[in-house]
Amino acid sequence: MKNFKIGDKLTKFPLIQGGMGVGISLGRLAGTVAKEGGIGIISTAQIGYREKDFDRNTEEANQRAILSEMKKARRISPDGIIGYNIMVALKEYASHVKAAVHAGADLIISGAGLPTELPALVSGSKTKIAPIVSTDKSAKVILKYWERKYKRTADLVVIEGPQAGGHLGFHREELESYTPEAYDNEIRKIVQTVKSYAAKFSTEIPVVAAGGIATHEDVKHVLDLGVDGVQVATRFIPTEECDADIRLKESLIHAAKDDIAIVKSPVGMPGRAIMNSFMQHVMAGKKIPHSPCHRCLAKCSPGEIPYCITDKLIAAVKGDVENGLLFCGAKAYMADKIETVHDVIADLFGTESECIRLA
């Protein structure tokens, strides 16, 4: 079976559990995935929402939670591979990266913009870094930039495709133009680009595909395209170990394929979510009252936004599924029961003999 190293740690499965904010990918989920032999990822996006002073001291609450969630994950998996997903679009991006390094992150995965400054922010640490790219063009831009400015390259690259959940790295027109076959070709191009940089730096750079990977067949398909592993996110929401409210988990189980749509975030970025009463109001042009600014996204103007993404993602993770933003992947409708992390990984990778044939 294919596997890869992060530093001196080797995965048992070529799997990264995707980072899902707010409050979906926390220490319990990440620690359990790492214990099972994958890479567990904690999302720092408004990670401190459960702290008592979150509304008054948002950044301090987030900083404490970045550390406490890693401690929780490490109690579950002392020797597993555990990292963070940190969005470039966050106002406090740099401080989140520094806090993650301080917490002992094995890996930082960074997207929602090109992480141009990430190498400088982890300088001197053992933390490995991985940009999220969606096209061959973006892969070339970030790898070339890191080479020229920092004389280094990525430790891993995540390719996030058009079937992913949450914020997407595509314009709406691109989402419509990328057929599965067309995006398969894009993945092949990115793999070749990354290989060229790996050769240039005499190293190995694992390439991991993400977006719409929900079944054993999906895993086999993308591995056949030449990637080294998969990142799976939505599949881990309806698990016992996910920290989200049971009502959010059940919303995926009850969702039909037609309930999942491309929506617009408050800052204009396209995303994928389950349609509910809240989103129907937004799509109809209604402006939703919101709380004072929690300083999440760098390009957000509180007086102009149709709704607050922090408010609505917190509502979702707490189980208010009619008034929350229910981000999910394109295949969320395939969920039919609450599972364990162990069961999800076993289903994705099949029996041991099948895993060997994936190599």
Automatic annotation (TrEMBL):
<comment type="function">
    <text>Nitronate monooxygenase that uses molecular oxygen to catalyze the oxidative denitrification of alkyl nitronates. Acts on propionate 3-nitronate (P3N), the presumed physiological substrate. Probably functions in the detoxification of P3N, a metabolic poison produced by plants and fungi as a defense mechanism.</text>
</comment>
<keyword id="KW-0285">Flavoprotein</keyword>
<dbReference type="GO" id="GO:0016853">
    <property type="term" value="F:isomerase activity"/>
</dbReference>
<dbReference type="GO" id="GO:0018580">
    <property type="term" value="F:nitronate monooxygenase activity"/>
</dbReference>
<keyword id="KW-0560">Oxidoreductase</keyword>
<dbReference type="Pfam" id="PF03060">
    <property type="entry name" value="NMO"/>
</dbReference>
<protein>
    <recommendedName>
        <fullName>Probable nitronate monooxygenase</fullName>
    </recommendedName>
</protein>
<dbReference type="InterPro" id="IPR013785">
    <property type="entry name" value="Aldolase_TIM"/>
</dbReference>
<keyword id="KW-0288">FMN</keyword>
<keyword id="KW-0413">Isomerase</keyword>
<dbReference type="InterPro" id="IPR004136">
    <property type="entry name" value="NMO"/>
</dbReference>
